[in-house]
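New to this. Explain the following:
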Amino acid sequence: MDILIIDGQGGNLGRQLTKRLREALPQADITVVGTNSTATENMLKGGADRAATGENAVVVNARRARVIAGPLGIVIADALLGEVTSAMARAVGSSDAVRVLIPMNRCDTLVAGVADRPMGELIEDAVRKIVALLK
């Protein structure tokens, strides 16, 4: 697996990221994992090769990924309104994969030095970084 995208809540960020990565890297093997079934279903519509839901799916797939992408909260226990468990955050944080985290400045986590930018700009920046890593 090249890319693992993790998202929660409605999965909108993950869907947009999946769609843009599929366009930029059509040959990439993209797996999406939602912290809930709604997020998973929405991300799958972005063009992922496979999808799964829940804590164990994050733990297992984080071991296999070359790149893990998603909102900053995927490395913080209890983030995304409590959807990220400590096991999920630990799996992402301890993975050998390169992490490309999108600083959403939400869910009680603010990143100093990061200006508020529209989600589209943040996704494009993440796509550029992932394309550079995989090419």
